[in-house]
Amino acid sequence: MAQPQQRPIANRPISFLNRNGLFLLLLALLVFLGVYLPLSESPLFMFQNRTSSSSSPSFVVSDWRDYSLAQAAKFVAKNGTVIVCAVSYPFLPFLNNWLISISRQKHHEKVLVIAEDYALLYKVNEKWPGHAVLIPPALDPKAAHHFGSQGFYNLTSRRPQHLLDILELGYNVMYNDVDMVWLQDPFKYLQGGHDVYFMDDMTTIKPLNHSHGLPPSRNGVTYVCSCMIFLRCTSGAKLLLKKWVEEIRAQPWSNTEAKKPHDQPAFNRALHKTTHQVSNCFL
C-alpha cells in the first residue's frame, strides 16, 4: 500500500508547542528584553511627551530656541550640581546609552544635554522637556560626527566654554563624553575639596594613597583624557577652563594630518600651565 505523501518541511505549520516553536518564542523574548527594555529605561523614553508634571519648568517654552543656559541649568541642577554632555544629533544612540547608565544610578534628573544642532535640541525636549539647550551658533549635524574632521573639531572645541559658562552661573559641573557609561555612582569617589577631578586612563589601577600630581608623560607629553571631568564652582576650576579656551583659540584649524588640532592636547597644555594654581585630583 502506498504511504501517504508528506508535505515539504517548508510548508509545515509551526506549532509553538514543539521544540522549534519554543526556540523561536524564546529567541523573540530575548530580543525584546535585550533591545526594547534597555531603551525604555532611558529618560528619553521614560518621560515621553511629558508636558505637565511637578518637575516641569515653571514657565511655558513655546520655542526651545529661546531657552537660555541659565534657565536650563536652574531647572536641572540638584544640590548645586549639573551633569553635562555636549552632543549633536548623529550621536543620539550614544546619548541614549549613556542616559540609561546614569538613570540606573538615579542621577538622570541632573542631566543637561547641550545640543549642538536644532535636530537634537527638539528631539530631547520633545521627549524630556527642559533637559536640552542650544548655545548658538548651531552646528551642521552632518559635519560634526566624523572624528578628525573640522566639523568634529568645531564641536569638541566649544566644550570648555560651555563648562565655564555653567561654572559662572554658580553650579558644579560633572562633564561626560557620551561614548562611555556609568557602572557605579562616580560622586562617591569625589573626596576632598579639590577644584577639578579627572579620570586618568593611561595607568593601571592606583593605590588609595596615589599622588594627585600630573601623571607621567607619554613621549614627552602628558596625556590626560578629558572624557570625564568634575569641576567645582571655584576660581581654580574657572582658571583651568579659561586657559583651556585660550589654548584652543591659539591653534587655528589645519587640515594637515601632522598639524591637525584637537581639543584634548589643548586641555593637557592648560593643565601644565595651571598646575600650581589649581587643586587637581586624578581618579
Task: Give your account of this protein's structure.
It contains nine helices and seven strands; from the N terminus they run H-H-H-E-H-E-H-E-H-H-E-E-E-H-H-E. The chain is 36% helix and 11% strand. The termini are far apart. Mean pLDDT is 78; it is low at 49-61. Helix 5 links the parallel strand 2 and strand 3. It has a single domain (63-282), classed as Spore Coat Polysaccharide Biosynthesis Protein SpsA, Chain A. The chain has helices at 19-41, 43-46, 69-76, 92-104, 118-127, 150-156, 159-168, 235-249, 263-274; strands spanning 81-87, 111-115, 132-134, 172-176, 196-198, 228-231, 280-282. It has a seven-stranded mixed β-sheet, with helices on both faces. The protein has 283 residues and is of the alpha/beta class. Helix 7 (159-168) packs antiparallel against helix 8 (235-249) and helix 8 packs across helix 9. The radius of gyration is 24 Å and the shape is globular. One of its GO terms (cellular component) is Golgi membrane. Residues 107-277 form the Nucleotide-diphospho-sugar transferase domain. One of its GO terms (biological process) is rhamnogalacturonan II biosynthetic process. GO terms for molecular function: UDP-xylosyltransferase activity. It holds the Pfam family Nucleotid_trans.
- Please tell me the CATH architecture by its name: Alpha-Beta Complex
How big is the Rg?
A: 24 Å
Helix content: 25-40%
Percentage of residues in DSSP E strands: 5-15%
Low-confidence stretches: 49-61
Tell me about the largest β-sheet. 7 strands, mixed
Distance N to C terminus: 82 Å
